[in-house]
Design a protein that fits this description.
Helices cover about 60% and strands about 0% of the residues. By secondary structure, the protein is an all-alpha fold. It has one domain: ADP-ribosylglycohydrolase fold. The longest helix is centred in the N-terminal third of the chain and has 23 residues. The chain binds magnesium ion. The site of magnesium ion has 8 residues, from helix 3 and helix 14.
């Protein structure tokens, strides 16, 4: 089995942050407004005023935090099986960064020490309300009927942690999303992204990775809507020319299956041209930062370093912390190095 390289781990999360920042500048703008502002080609570069990564990247980091804390706990105390609670606590820590009381979650660890994670950048209503309820949803006990894209946009680290086994990645991606999103398309889209990332970082082709993730999706109840969105994206990616009008035919991206499908469409259109891929992913009238973030996650897992154009490297905020998190995921989940005292302070298991 191919061991995933560290640069794929880093690029999966960093290209996600770049896509998030590109899209956040135009998240609530219709296509017409984007063209008025930036010209006929729409947003055509990372702008100095558009380098802020948003809730998509923030929540992705908190997903990674949970995975690292759960692994540390398991290695340290021999207590496996705590991941659902640890994920919930991590998302409660994220909620705390958005101005809510910390509640039952421990306030320890690296992320809460970083002031740049406390910016409020259009956090998703479903994530906020589900977490503020204090109850964690599950696939068996849905917390609501939401299929917003807040589950899938934070799922990529699950694919990195469970890189050995796409089935586990799918399952845990869905479980992590179901904490806040109870509709199958809200959590199955997250499972799909995690499985896709797991396959890609092991060096599988995009085609092979989709085949594995498709098969896992088909096994799940109520998968039809998500599968249909993906099939539509693939069909459109083989038809005519890529354009904002065409990606809008895939959807708007406010819901999980559309955000996933629009990201996949962009990667299928430009698998070797990260700049074109990420700009295609964000130039539309829908949820641009989430479609950009997910497209970046997929592209980074697939291409490694090449997924980020040289002049965009290091230009997005949360860059350093995102890189640290990706490196730690690789150190502990791939290289299997123990948690030294420094790492244990960043990701406490207790
Ligand atoms: Mg956002």
């Amino acid at each position: 089995m191919n061991l995933p390289s560290r640069d794929r781990f880093e690029a999966c999360l960093l290209a996600g942050a770049v896509g998030d920042a590109l899209g956040y500048l135009i998240e609530f703008d219709k296509l017409e407004r984007i063209r008025q502002q930036f010209g006929p080609a729409g947003l055509d570069d990372l702008r100095p005023e558009g380098t802020a990564a948003s809730d998509d990247t923030q929540m992705t980091l908190f997903t990674a935090e949970a995975l690292l804390r759960a692994l540390n706990r398991e290695l340290e105390k021999g207590i496996p099986g705590a991941l659902p609670d640890i994920l919930h606590h991590s998302y409660l820590r994220w909620l705390h960064t958005q101005g809510h009381p910390l509640g039952a979650a421990p306030g320890s660890g690296l992320l809460l020490q970083r002031p740049e994670l406390f910016h409020r950048r259009a956090p998703g209503n479903t994530c906020v309300s589900a977490l503020a309820s204090g109850t964690a949803g599950t696939v068996a006990m849905p917390i609501n009927n939401s299929k917003g894209c807040g589950g899938v946009m934070r799922a990529a680290p699950v694919g990195l942690a469970f890189w050995r086994d796409a089935r586990l990645a799918f399952d845990w991606g869905a479980k992590a999303a179901a904490i806040t999103h109870g509709h199958p398309s809200g959590y199955l889209s997250a499972g799909y992204l995690a499985a896709l990332v797991a396959e890609l970082v092991r060096g599988r082709s995009l085609e092979q990775a989709q085949a594995v993730a498709d098969a896992l999706l088909r096994e799940r109840e109520k998968h039809e809507e998500t599968l249909h969105a993906l099939e539509k994206a693939r069909l459109l990616a083989r038809t005519g020319e890529p354009s904002p009008e065409q990606i809008e035919q895939v959807g708007q991206g406010w819901v999980g299956e559309e955000a996933l499908a629009m990201a996949l469409y962009s990667v299928l259109r430009f698998p070797d041209d990260p700049r074109a891929c990420l700009l295609l992913a964000v130039n539309h009238g829908g949820d641009s930062d989430s479609t950009g973030a997910i497209a970046g996650n997929i592209l980074g897992a697939m291409l490694g370093d090449r997924a980020i154009p040289a002049d965009w490297r290091g230009k997005v905020d949360l860059w350093d912390i995102t890189q640290t998190v990706a490196q730690d995921l690789h150190t502990h989940f791939v290289a299997h190095r123990p948690f030294d005292p420094e790492a244990a302070r960043r990701w406490p298991g207790g």
